């Protein structure tokens, strides 16, 4: 029964959060600071998710082949490679490091 209570509370919380977003006045959303922050928020969230997925295994901090793949992707981005090349570089380096026992 606690499971369904948790689901119901989560649904109500999501609805209230969505409603709160709709109730924000338009004047508040048109401020330059709010617009700059809202433009940067997805980048920060994606970076945090990437770091969490790359350097964690359960509750432990790990540095393994995924870190090398991320470094290769970052280098490809710095060199302004197309997106598919960035992904291919990350996959190739990660696979190579794992094949070498890393």
Chain-wise SSE layout:
Elements: H1 2-22, H2 26-29, H3 32-55, E1 56-57, E2 60-61, H4 65-78, H5 83-99
Helix pairs in contact: 4-5
Poorly predicted runs of 5 or more residues: none
Q: Rounded to an integer, what's the Rg over CA atoms?
A: 20 Å
Q: List the secondary-structure elements in sequence, H or E.
A: HHHEEHH
Helix coverage percent: over 70%
Strand order of the largest sheet: 1-2
Q: How many separate helices?
A: 5
Description:
The structure is a single chain. With 102 residues, this protein is mainly alpha-helical. The chain is 78% helix and 4% strand. The chain has helices spanning 2-22, 26-29, 32-55, 65-78, 83-99; strands at residues 56-57, 60-61. The protein has a two-stranded antiparallel ribbon with strand order 1-2. The mean pLDDT is 93.
Gist of the model:
With 102 residues, the protein is mainly alpha-helical. It has helices at 2-22, 26-29, 32-55, 65-78, 83-99, and strands at residues 56-57, 60-61.
Question: What keyword list fits this structure?
Answer:
102 residues; mainly alpha; 2 strands
């Amino acid at each position: 029964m606690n499971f369904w209570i948790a689901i119901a509370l989560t649904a109500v919380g999501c609805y209230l959060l969505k409603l709160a977003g709709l109730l924000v006045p338009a004047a508040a959303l048109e401020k330059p600071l709010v617009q700059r922050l809202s433009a940067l928020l997805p980048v920060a969230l994606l970076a945090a998710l990437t770091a969490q997925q790359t350097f964690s295994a359960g509750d432990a901090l790990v540095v393994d082949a995924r870190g090398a793949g991320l470094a290769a992707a970052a280098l490809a981005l710095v060199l302004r490679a197309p997106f598919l090349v960035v992904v291919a570089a990350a996959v190739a380096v990660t696979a190579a490091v794992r094949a070498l026992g890393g």
